[in-house]
Amino acid sequence: MTVAPASGNDTAQSRPVPEGHVRLTIDGIEVDAPQGELVIRTAERLGIVIPRFCDHPLLDPAGACRQCLVEVEVNGKPMPKPAASCTTAVADGMVVRTQQTSQVADKAQQGVMELLLINHPLDCPICDKGGECPLQNQALKHGRGDSRFVDTKRTFPKPVSISSQILLDRERCVLCQRCTRFSKQIAGDPFIELLERGATQQIGTGEQQPFQSYFSGNTIQICPVGALTSAAYRFRSRPFDLVSTPGVCEHCSSGCSQRTDWRRGKVMRRLAGEDPEVNEEWNCDKGRFAFRYATASDRITRPMVRDADSGELRETSWTEALRKAADGLLNARDSRGVGVLPGGRLTREDAYAYGKFARVALGTNDIDHRARPHSNEELDFLGSSVVGTGPEDGVSYASLEAAPAVLCVAFEPEEESPIVFLRLRKAARDSGTRVFHLGQWDSPGVEKTTHIADSGSPIHSGGLLRCLPGGEAAALYELPSEVEQALGEPGSVLLLGERCSQVSGVYTAAMRLAERTGARIAWIPRRAGERGAVEAGTLPTLLPNGRPVSDSVVRSGIERAWGMSTGSLPSVPGRDIDGILAAAESGELSGLLVGGLDPADLPDPEQARRALRAAGFLVSLELRPTGVTEHADVVLPIAPTVEKSGTFLNWEGRPREFEITIEGTGAVPDCRVLDTLAVEMDVDLFTQTPQAVAAEIRRLGPNPGARPKPPDIPAEPVTEPSGDRALLASWRHLLDNGSMQHDEPNLAGTARPPVARVSHGTARRLGLEPHQPIRVSTERGTIALESEVVEIPDGVVWLPGNSGPAEVNEVLGVGHGAVVGIAAGTAPAPGTTPGQREPGGEELPAVAGNGHTSNGHGPPAHGSNGNGQAGIDGGGA
Amino acid sequence: MTEANAPDGTAREAAGSPLTPVLTRRWLSPESWSLRTYEQLEGYTALRTALSLHPDQLTELVKAAGLRGRGGAGFPSGVKWGFMPKDRSRPHYLVINADEGEPGTCKDVPLMMADPHSLLEGCVIAAYAMRANNCMIYVRGEALHCIRRLHHAVREAYEAGYLGENILDSGFDLDVVVHAGAGAYICGEETALLDSLEGKRGQPRLKPPFPAQAGLYSSPTTVNNVETIASVPHIVNGGSDWFRGMGREKSPGPKIFSLSGHVERPGQYEAPLGTTLRELLELAGGMKDGIPLKFWTPGGSSTPLFTADHLDVPLDFEGAAEAGSMLGTTALMIFNETVSVPWAVMKWTQFYEHESCGKCTPCREGCFWLAQVLERMVQGRGTEQDIDTLLDVCDNVLGRSFCALGDGAVSPITSGIKYFREEFLALCESNRGQDTTEEPALAGVAR
Amino acid sequence: MGMTDPLKGFGVTLSKMFKTVLTEEYPEVKKIPAPRFHGKHQLNRHPDGLEKCVGCELCAWACPADAIFVEGGTNTDDERYSPGERYGFDYQINYLRCIGCGLCIEACPTRALTMTNEYETADDNRQNLIYTKEDLLAPLLPGMEQPPHDMRLGDDEQDYYVNGPELARGQGVPAGATVETGDEEAVR
Q: Where is the 4Fe-4S Mo/W bis-MGD-type domain (chain A) (predicted)?
């Protein structure tokens, strides 16, 4: 943008208008603006702030509030009425006069402000938005001192809870439609809509719409008044008493920038931060609302050691705990060795400390952070194709948006990485990206990235490629030609999810597909720490920054950097997590060092617990008690994300650095604990602070040697089981039983109800009535869950991974792709349908079903939609 | 209003009317709504002519005839048709706005009741001219009888081959859908009507894109009023010069004037544009019971009021505008001396408060406020200050709202105060001198 | 030192016996400060005993000494402390920091916070000088009832704010009698 003062006309005349730009005048200032830009934005770039409510840069213009009226002159002709600057695009030779230079615009804005206020209640003192309220600010800035309105205000019962998390105050609402537009256009969850008309127009909920959204919290943040407030934050504090600290979300690998608001050492709320490269201005409800785990009453704040006499853990001093831990680990190391399980939620710096601790202090490569189902194929894939890439040279959010086609392989974006989902949806909606999903059923996330019907004509693109669970690899070799062709267009992307590690041959198949089509591959893990841990070298085959353990040149480089004697770095690739646990159980390892990890997350929790029990010496670094704590000999407390600094690498490989939000709590990060522990063991890690670690990682630089070889595993055929057997498909919901959602009842209320999904054919085979529970069992145990019939291949049952009673790993001991037994369960007791909304607040008038579900109203002449559901149903074999 | 109220053509000629009826000429024929009667009276002859022409010739013909939209705004129809893209890459739609909601307006419903086939014939010609193969007629949901008759007419036309595939062996296909609205004034606004047709909430859309680029289902669409389309067959048969022979230079053609209120014979009177109320009153037998005229609306309640001083204003688009009002839908509501202007204005404002769609602030909140102030005034609790407040709020709504509903809502108030301020003042008489600045306990919360 | 010096001392004593005594007989006789003296704060009540404080924190915001801490809470139908949605769940004034400026009572939108003439805010330990809600709440006058309880005077908070005292009189409180705390005489 170039700003030229009005006086400099001579030079301005000679200065050419840049390509694709127009030249206009706003309040006497001549400015060049890109074609199609809205006047309100151009003015903002000049520092002229036009008041507004409905306008939001990431939502389609609405022009509803009329607060941003300005006087416009086009081609020397003044327009007859003031124009809304949020819907008027710039034009060459346009002359705009805002409230600063135009009486008309100023009067119009004051008039609209007065009209907005006549029905607005005077409850700013009790309103959660008070103090940070655009309406309050603008009323004080542009409004009248007193009201001419002496009649009766419109009132509504208030507040009503439109979900367990969101409260609606219809009196405060200025009907700007930001929330409804967000939920329709961005999230694709039209769970709120406008109802009624005229002065009684109000926001309400749909009668036949599922009443939940993973992104509902954003509506609170973009509400320009206090109409939408959060149940969790309700009346907790006022903005002027809060300290806002920028941070990074620790939940998933999306890497959202966020703002943490806290006071007196306690986090009060979290908001989405602004980062156009990553999360734009959005985040998911988990990132926004799940933070009280860090202040849970059972948080471990002091070191504990197991009392030799009583066998119980007792609190003790750091000195004693570290001494005991060091002694125990030294003994175990010198006996048969120690395995390290850091877990997938660490910062890159903390992970690096674990990796260095394992290699330097424990002299082993037996380290694996993948506290989930995993495979050796994945290990090879990570080493050959993932480590060392970043948003500059790999796949980024921007490349998703620019991609002509995206194929999600065993990846459920809405559940596993919600911001990736939002970006895919945006791509499908605005840039015509075709999003394909290789999965089992039309989950909401699939639906919302392939069928978009908010405004204008509905978009149907991409689609679901159905396959049997476990048949993903085979399906990748037999993609419909339409999909293969789409992926062949330059810029297309393959997204591989965590579930790929449960299907043999998927990584190989995906890499072959990428070679065939030229599409690029990105790996999107579920946990925030996984990507950073891969870089930091907490894998049995990888040293920091992707250096393969097996390369002797690379090893000697690391030995020099770490100040170790030549040949002292273990040269044999270590055991993976299964191997470590098996070895601990059988006594091949005599000690374990365990980070943030819950046995229930592991593929076989029972085996994990046996191993923890059998381990000769167990040190646990934890925030809160888990299944590890009860077996630990020494428990060392560590800091939660909010009390430490560090870096998460998001799925792109983009470093997301954050500083300490709440200082002075005395909690220390893992890297500091490990450093001190190492000192007790007479080893120097130099990982005292995350800053020091980050500097060391920078110094090490990228892998100077060759990348490890990519995996080469053939796809295994899968056959559809018959009778009372079925193939299990399973992935986790975003909101589930996870321990980091502890103590968030309002958030939990918006979780998707756990139901088992089967096909019509399977239901008939079992004689299932609608909603009748289905029993899914293995030798280990049985999960009984309400059933729902969906379009899913016959002989497949889908279970949520960790929701309600459906704790698949824990109860069944198997995962995605396994063969399980199915049977009809006993009919549910009436009125106990899971997932029913808690009654709360006033009843809302509900819109009758078809009011806003316009996806069924396609134009007759459009004929059938062209989505790519070219079935490969039952594929695999 | 039914066809029984339609004017007697011969009677009118006897009264020295300057015009032979055009749009209403079949209204009094027996079973005028049936295809048989219609065909007997030159029905579907224009269609044969039209289908032999090139679509663009038809658009040019309508342009040459100077036909202007009869829905209120008076936009030249030929120009509007010309906005439609010529290529057929996307489906084109013709939408007929039969959501006659403007208070006082009752011309489209009688037309569709008495002569539905003239509308259908117009639809086929217009759709052919615009290369549209789908036509929707969006009828006001309350007009149930009318909807039935339209359905019947559409069925007859399909059976006779005037609709459907390959109409009259021309190779042109057209499907007509009669859609009943659910009763919202705003759905008479063309983009709100399109949203409503799509099954969405009826609220006006942002323009641009205009319907000709992205209308129904984001496809090129033209929305025309019933009377506009029903005029088309006559233009095709009579030619543009014949059409221009009626009315005035810039507003040619015949127009159905709906006279209601305090006149001897209320009803539909077809006369050329530019006819004055004085002439129309003569046709309608003068003021009821001889009580003198006090005020009237030239085109429904959304157009500023006229008084007895405006009896000789030529009722065409320019004439009404020059006199400070608008032609609107030529719904002439005539009020005699017995009617209180503030009361009438209050009733209209209550209508707008009820019908404001709620999308934009000025119209939603403004109508809510104006209605309350007027109700208070009519109850005798108003003050002189309220009149200033009314005018200032009207100023804050006029031209500030999203669509024209807000503009229409304030016009009876501003024009009412302009011509009859003393009546508003009289209502405040009892409160004169009272301290109006008394603070309520909490400003704005007195309740 | 001269011979008469001791006598001079007696002279001073003698002369003082005929002048006004400046000594305060505190604490036996308590001094009554000026009516608008900025003393200890008080959290007032509505005529039925419900609290006026809505926990808005405006007092804390206004406080130049950061002496006030407030946290709001949600009233429910079962547990109601004030009319309306919100009440002051936690209310603390730190008298070690309070400078008695009175900006807090000017900021209060419901006139829940006022200052009394009570000046005895001294203690021998710092902890006791952080006054909590229990210490600050006005005593119950006749006709008042200890919250939590339902709104006795109206259907919503507007009734309380717009015409609370009249409603109280409607319930039998005689005219002229103080029906809500907040007026200084109610405390005296």
A: 242-298
How far is the C-alpha of A497 from the C-alpha of A522, rounded, in Å?
9
Q: Quote the domain boundaries for residue B407.
A: 341-431
Is C53 annotated as a binding-site member?
yes
Whether residue A713 is contained in a domain is answered as no
Interface pTM, i.e. ipTM = 0.91
CB A109 within 8 A of CB C67: no
* C40-183 placed in CATH 3.30.70.3270: yes
Is C101 annotated as contributing to ligand binding?
yes
The answer to whether residues B124 and B77 belong to one domain is yes
Calculate helix-pair angle for A690-700, A552-561, nearest 10 degrees.
140
Answer left, alpha or beta for residue A346, where phi above 0 means left and psi between -120 and 50 means alpha. beta
Q: Which residues between 245 and 284 in chain A have a beta carbon less than 8 angstroms from any beta carbon of chain C?
A: 264
**Residue of A234, A238, A345, A348 whose CA lies nearest to A289:** A234
- pLDDT digits 0-9 by tens, A543-591: 999 999 999 999 999 999 999 999 999 999 999 999 999 999 999 999 9
Ranges in chain A, pLDDT < 70: 1-14, 207-211, 455-456, 827-877
- Alpha-carbon distance C119 to C125, whole Å? 17
Strands (E), A154-280: 160-161, 166-168, 192-195, 202-205, 228-230, 243-248, 257-263, 266-272
Report the half-sphere exposure of B378 (CA within 13 A, side-chain side).
17
Domains contained in chain A, number: 5
CA distance A208 to C137: 49
Judgement on whether residues A695 and A577 belong to the same structural domain of the protein: yes
Confirm or reject contact between A132 and chain C (CB < 8 A). Answer: no
Model confidence, pTM: 0.91
Q: Which of B391, B396, B401, B437 to probe by mutation at the A interface, max A CB count within 10 Å?
A: B396
d(CA C47, CA A841): 28
The residues near A501 (Cβ < 8 Å, ≥ 6 apart) are A370, A372, A373, A374, A375, A377, A378
At which residue do the structure tokens 């490969």 appear? Answer: A872
In a domain, residue B10? The reply is: no
Whether the Cβ atoms of residue B327 and residue B321 lie closer than 8 Å to each other: yes
User: A271 lies in a domain?
Assistant: yes
Q: B315 and B355: one domain?
A: no
CA angle A6/A10/A16 to nearest 5° reads 95
**Any domain includes A869:** no
Q: Which residues of B touch C167 (CB under 8 A)?
A: none
C162 carries a ligand binding annotation: no
Tokens of B442: 């909490």
